[in-house]
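Lab channel / #folding
Pinned by the channel admin:
"Please post every new chain as: sequence first, then the structure tokens as a reply. Keep commentary short and put observations after the output so the thread stays searchable."

First post following the new format, from NK:
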Amino acid sequence: MSLFSHRARARLKPSASLPVSNWQGSASHTLGSKYRRAAIPPWLINTASLIIMGLLVLLSLSIGVADFSWSGILQSLLTQSANSDSSLLLVSRIPRTVAIILTGIAMAVAGMIIQVVLKNRFVEPSMVGATQSAALGLLVVSLLFPASALIVKMSVATIAAVFGMMLFMLLIHRIPPTDFLMVPLIGIVFGGIIEAVTTFIAYQTESLQMLSVWQFGDFSGVLAGRYELLWLTGALCVLAYIIADKLTIVGLGDNIALNLGISKRQVTWVGVGMVAMMSAVVVVTVGMIPFIGLVVPNIVSRLMGDKLRRSLPAVALLGASAVLLSDIIGRSIRYPFEVPVATVFGVVGTVLFLWLLLRAPAE
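Reply from TO:
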């Protein structure tokens, strides 16, 4: 009788020693009001994020090695003639700033999608082998077909990223749901193995310098005509917002998705394909930038809850602002030299990732 009572109490009251993932809940939890509600009104967060991003955009346009003045831009507009300031703004500063914004939005949204698909808050594209596999595919196609078009390289990198994510999902298939901290640890090891293979191939073919361009996210080489591929990630983010409700339902569990008529397999593959394509485009254009897809969605989730359609705009705005701020710091800390964005955000992201791992789970 005492054993029965103990089991009954265990059913009624979950153990405090076993934290449960926010995405893993029973039907009784989700049919109630188990979405974590926004701690701050969404419109206030989005408005503040938009204002901050606007200020960072102006600061990003103003900082650089070349001489630049807003008075010269005003004079160019009044006289309707091009000068050095307007040429610099159109050829270098605006393309770089737009590329930074699109990259931040893409990586943050991709991180949010993969967290929903895998039902784990501690993963992002660089922790599931997506970016590493994309770099490996890009290296292979560059060695075998060096004269291939950029769209061919991006396609091969996307396919490689999809295969890398498929292999990772097979590796974590047998992990119990309660061991949610094992998923990012396995992902780090898995990504490290792929990166080691890529480095070995590059070393044998004397391509380490070319590989370093893709492994460290840097916007110093972004000019007009060299970043337009990133607009594809913007279209994918719009698609993610359109199917946000379906992604949220899939994240609630297999049984709930089935009861609501949502094809879990189809939505999962769409999400995986979107994450792979975003990762490939970013790697091809500016290189790897880690931890954005991990830190930004977790911060927004704690402020706005788990409903994807409500939190996705805030994720995009905060991701863009985070990369903008990292780029400004990288350009200012050792002026006139630049520190890559991946290095700046990698340091900050590592600290925040350890904090997310070690802190107590949210109620």
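NK: The CA atoms of residues 161 and 276 lie 5 Å apart.
TO: also worth noting, Residues 1-35 have pLDDT under 50 and may be disordered.
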